[in-house]
Give the backbone structure.
Amino acid sequence: MKKKLEVQAIENGSVIDHIAAGKGVKILKFFQLTDTNQKITIGLNLPTGGSTTKDLIKIENTQITGVQANQLALFAPDATINLIDDYDVVKKFKVELPEAISGVLACPNSNCISHNEPVDSLFYIKQKQQIKLKCHYCEKSFATSFFKELD
Ligand SMILES: [Zn+2]
């Protein structure tokens, strides 16, 4: 099998692969991945071998944590994380949706008390055909497209 390197290999760090095309830049912003002086390489609209395209992010000298990987699943349910050490993939895993997410998303319901109280937002995540997030405070459920942070 011929292997094509889409983006230059890194010595140490993390590669987030199989991000749906168009989500790569949002992921960088959401996780404030650019708040670092480490080298970041982002590939947009890369061919997947099939009929679709994907985005890919490489961050040097940074290990994506399990919590970050789970939050990533909200943007990119099919993403895989590769942890690289000395040019080798030492760990490869798929992101998994967390059961809940706290503090990082604002409730789309403008009447929700979470906007007026000094509390961290909290959503429970349910998935049937589509991911839904249920607010702990107003108990309303929202698709990911309701969140400006995710869409
Ligand atoms: Zn709410």
Observations:
- The chain has a mean pLDDT of 89.
